[in-house]
Amino acid sequence: MKCSLVLFDVNETLSDMGGMAQHFEEVGAPPGTAALWFASLLRDGFALTAAGVNPRFAELAGGSLRRVLAAEPLNRNLDDAVGQLLDAFQQLPVHSDVADGLAALARRGIRVAALTNGAAGTATSLLERAGLRGHFEEVLSVEDAPRWKPAASAYGYAAEACSTPLPDIALVAVHPWDIDGAARAGLRTVWLNRDGAAFPAYATAPDVTVRHCAEIAACLNP
Amino acid sequence: MKCSLVLFDVNETLSDMGGMAQHFEEVGAPPGTAALWFASLLRDGFALTAAGVNPRFAELAGGSLRRVLAAEPLNRNLDDAVGQLLDAFQQLPVHSDVADGLAALARRGIRVAALTNGAAGTATSLLERAGLRGHFEEVLSVEDAPRWKPAASAYGYAAEACSTPLPDIALVAVHPWDIDGAARAGLRTVWLNRDGAAFPAYATAPDVTVRHCAEIAACLNP
Questions:
Q1: pTM value?
Q2: Yes or no, beta carbons of B66 and A180 under 8 Å apart
Q3: What is the CATH number of the domain that holds B151?
């Protein structure tokens, strides 16, 4: 597949949120609350996007965390639990396959950038902690776009910021909603399917599916 | 608050999904999977809405159920579990406070309609099983609107279908995203907060908050 720039999603695509379930258990919430929190956060962020707003990720993250935790028997007060979990979210590691994937893209001379619905600062810190920031020519946030992904204008903003036409960009993401939105906006798409799940029929299918970041480079021609 | 028509949301506002947790347990999934499923369903529906699509609720319901169940150790095959849970979703009861609320609105001569992101047929069956269909002059679905709620065009469609100006309509809903979208679209809003939760700061606050459907009528002047 022809492509001169790989645009990585950040949350769960680069960052590894697997440890969050244990952090929820530490404050007394069932481990499944981690997945409910993140689904609720995105649900409400996308709802505001559909209503024409471009909300702040941090506000949504804190507010939806407060809502899901309020229903749970915590072992500390709500403010402390929210603070502790938001701190943990700011300290996530990257997935173990990311470094190899970036090295393979570098060897093939494929440009790399990131586009997050979160804050640019959070994404930059994530990559710096992992020693991988240097691989990315841009670390972009929808904070500077008209709307969150998967609205078309978010991908359009990234294409403009990277001075690259939409069809020359391949979005890499673990979330089907991101693959769907990018495809509708005119990008190429690579679904990073680490856990071997089925792709949902209601979303636009990816151009390419890989199980591991290191497989991405071989699928692309710069 | 002046209002000639009350427009009820349907899922969780009229229908009682509390029993779904037990249905999930019956197929071997943790009871918390029910909440994760419904949050994921709305997340993906709103994502498609933000990307400019008007998806079918039933397709989203089945597809996202399949995805959340695939990660769980079920006591039967995936197809059977999905089928059983979708059947249960089609047979939900209405909340115990709904009949009183509708009777109070009727006594005050306030018109009543419903607008669902689900199928009109599912909402109609729900109300018929409860013997309450007669209270509603319209049972509307976003299937016939340009987009799902909370896109402004969904509320606009309902206003047109009911031949009532937006500011004369009060949306009643349990979900803050629906209150927010309706307020942005120009409707009045009544948050039905049955469990006494806090309203999230990132959503537009409701005009009125009630704990029980029977309190709605007293807040409105036809």
A1: 0.97
A2: no
A3: 3.40.50.1000
Contact assignment for A43 to B43 by CB distance below 8 Å: yes
Residue where a domain terminates, one of B35, B63, B89: B89
Which of A9, A20, A177, A189 should we substitute to test contact with B (largest number of B Cβ atoms within 10 Å)?
A177
Domain containing A48 equals: 20-89
Name the region of B149 (left: φ>0; alpha: ψ -120 to 50; beta: rest). beta
B30, B21 Cβ separation under 8 angstroms = no
pLDDT one-digit tens code per residue, B118-155: 999 999 999 999 999 999 999 999 999 999 999 999 99
For residue A114, give the 3-state DSSP assignment.
Answer: strand
Which of residues B30, B65, B89 is at a domain's end?
A: B89
Residue A106 C-alpha, separation from nearest chain B C-alpha, in angstroms: 31
Judging contacts by C-beta atoms under 8 Å, the chain B residues touching residue A202 are: 44, 48, 55-56, 59-60, 63
ipTM value for the complex:
0.97
Structure tokens, B23: 């249905």
Task: Report DSSP state, residue A162.
Answer: T
| B162 and B215 within one domain | yes
Is it the case that residue B222 has pLDDT exceeding 90? Answer: no
Question: What pLDDT digit, counting tens, does each position of A113-171 carry?
Answer: 999 999 999 999 999 999 999 999 999 999 999 999 999 999 999 999 999 999 999 99
- Give the model's confidence band at A71: pLDDT under 50 very low, under 70 low, under 90 confident, else very high: confident
CA distances B216 to B132, B135, B136, Å, are: 17, 15, 16
pLDDT per residue as tens digits for the range A43-65: 999 999 999 999 999 999 999 99
